[in-house]
Amino acid sequence: MSGDALTEAMYSKRKASRIPARAEKRTAARFYQLKSGHALTGVYLKSTDNRPDDHCWWCDPENISGTQQTRDHLFKHCSRWKDQQTELWARVKEATERAKRKRRVGGLLADERCSPAALDCLWGTYVGRAAPPVEETWNSEGTRPDLYSYRVCRRTGVAST
Ligand SMILES: [Zn+2]
Prior knowledge:
Layout: H1 3-17, H2 21-36, H3 42-47, H4 71-77, H5 82-96, H6 105-110, H7 115-123, E1 151-152, E2 159-160
Antiparallel strand pairs: 1-2
Helix pairs in contact: 2-7, 5-7
The structure holds zinc ion.
């Protein structure tokens, strides 16, 4: 997607929802990172030696099932983001007339018709933001760690407490 088209998508979003420009910028940055495959996902962080494995820390925090945190997993299967996925794929189908099962996430991110839906989906999730520290697991009440409270290393994108 060209920068202009993305800016336009963001601009119409801001008019509609009054999301601060700085927050939009961060969402756009995550969008580009996901598109290029360099977002802070389990698979990417493992490939860059920043995590020992690539399991999904949202739906499989103890790494029991060994579910890989890929882009496809995050946008299609991760139980943590079901609501956002449902909305995303309904909008994608409306915009492109292609059903979820027939689409790869890489193709979706490259398709400008899907960008507003993808941006809204990202805005509503922590996908591609910070990874929790490796030793961090969910607390005993079963709530997830507050990823926004972590300091994220600027070089590696990995969070520490
Ligand atoms: Zn997951």
